[in-house]
Records
---
Amino acid sequence: MNEKRKLSNAASEFLAQNLPANFERFDAENLPRVRRESHEGFAPACKKILDETGASVEELSLNDVAVQRVVPSGGGRDDAAVLYHFGGGFVMGSAYEDSVITAQIATALNVSVYAAKYRLSPEHPFPAAQDDAFAVYRAMVDSFDNRRLAVMGESAGGNLSLSVLNRARGAALPMPSALAVLSPWVAIGDLDGSVSENDGRDPTLGRQYIEDASRFYVADQDYKNPQVSPLFADYDHAFPPTIVTTGTRDLLLSGSVMIAEKLQSAGVDTTLKVWDDLWHVFEFYPDIPEARESIGDIVAHLKTHMRL
């Protein structure tokens, strides 16, 4: 489904201010600084959305993995939850930075959102992030009825969401009731299609970032290993109902469309929403009306299948 409409003034202004994008190429030496600057840059937006929603942030550990729990105002329901995976190419990002999304989800569903604070590359290449995320998923299915559990992730977190569920299926663990992936990075190392075509058109992600992050995350692994790149995994109708969101400027548009088509072909209840003229994980910018609307679509999907 292609969401064609007139771009909001806020989205148009965002593009005008952020194109052409200026991406700093990172390496093992400057990465700590780039991570710190990213965290500091998004902190005001995180505080703003937490203040707006009244949600609170707690720290805990599940199966020896650090987890951030975003709790809706008033505490919310205790019989349901969302497991969330943040993005950042497996080299950057944090659970706190993604509070701009998780606080909205927690508030709209009135359930806590648990975000695994998985290890990052290149210090901890594949499969460290996935091992951490899988350990947290095990803890979640032990604590919640899978019919009241949903999984969600953006970009690299979308990769983790798909990969962890494939791994869980192989381990005969129950599937969650629903899945939502925003601009998922499903084909590590793939520099073709929209990764090249939208380079310079996407204000928040560049081809060089994908190339560097792929190398850091995968190390000596095969890019087409289905656990590395979930686009190459096999799916069946037992996979949970899924919503995939992306935009026509998204650097990862091609992969998002291909994974949605692959899920649909396997008999999975799949909704694909392609937003015209929007970019990689545009939902990360709550001042843009389209971002709030897309979050609303995702909430509706989760609420329906979690039966909340």
---
Amino acid sequence: MPRRAALLRPTADSHPPSELNPTPAAIAGETSRRALWLESLSPTEQRTLRHVGLRIAAFRRKRRITLAELAVAADLNAAHLGTIERGENNTTLLSLVRIASALTVDVKALLEVVR
């Protein structure tokens, strides 16, 4: 009889890689809703989102914590926090306050323009 761990281990047949199983949108060459939303923003708005995300990532790396650790400290979903850091999401003020508090910085520091 096989060991229990062997029974629980997923096989290649049970979980095919996503590239072997593309979404219908990918097959049709459609752009995601998030990508369309980002394209609808002005260049200034896109730069602003990227800038805030880069500031968050810089403070996080300076404190030597992972994205997952920051997400737990800020009580946010790690995937959501990742989209904020990449400038792909227009976050709420309350989320920025949580992130700043977890990083022990002022919200102003996340929004400052570095020249």
